[in-house]
Specification:
- With about 250 residues, the protein is α/β, with parallel strands linked by helices.
- It contains 7 helices and 13 strands.
- It has a 5-stranded parallel β-sheet, with helices on both faces.
- The protein starts with 5 loop residues before the first strand and ends in a 5-residue tail after the last strand.
- The structure holds S-adenosyl-L-homocysteine.
- S-adenosyl-L-homocysteine binds next to helix 5, strand 9 and strand 11.
Length: about 250
Amino acid sequence: MKPGGWVSVTGLGPGAEDLVTPEARAILAEATDIVGYGPYVARIPEREGQIRHASDNRVELERAALALSLAAEGRRAAVVSSGDPGVFAMASALFEAMEAGPEAWRNLEVRVVPGVTAMLAAAAAAGAPLGHDFCAINLSDNLKPFGLVLKRLRLAVEADFAMGLYNPRSKARPRQFAEVLTLLREICEPERLILFARAVSTPEQEIRVIPLREAAPEMADMRTVVLVGSSRTRRVGRFVYTPRSA
Ligand code: SAH
């Protein structure tokens, strides 16, 4: 192990430059290496001498192992994620790679730099739909059985949480989100508010708030975070909010 190396797992926020924290910016300026999924690496201004390791999606563990080995060689590796790195992103992957890797990796300097996650940016754009108890569920079944996704949804509705649903629908998984909507219709009242927030904080931002009975699977894609209100979530003027008492 060479001295001076570190890994940071840094959140870039949902898209807008203004939502990149000063801490994230400072870390990225100090890094010798930027590691991440191509489109996220592309968001960072190029710096002379800084090496960019852009990779495909779905190779999180390899990416994390690369960053850890760079740090062990004395380099300063910034792994980047959109939003917050701890929300369905690279921070856990990094610790999984640490756990599976050489014992010495456990002594490396690692810093997780938080960011604004999509559900919070989306909620802020709409008002305060997550203003009382809420949870977040990743709808992707890449790393867990889809039955578990449906079970968590059912229990979250039973507990009357508002919810942020990440990775709702992709070309590889076109059908699951339709099943999610079917389940929600079975267990929630038809007027329950659902919010489709696409490309939040970017020029393509689109936010649609509708009652559950009008929701259709095509309203979501991989750039959409879906917020489902609790039974108390309602509209006031052009805003949506959940009261603090429930
Ligand atoms: N770490 C990220 C989430 C990664 S999972 C975060 O904290 O936001 C990828 C999913 O995040 C997407 O499928 C989408 O559901 C959501 N997402 C990320 N950026 C978004 C944005 N700008 N607008 C809407 N949803 C977004």
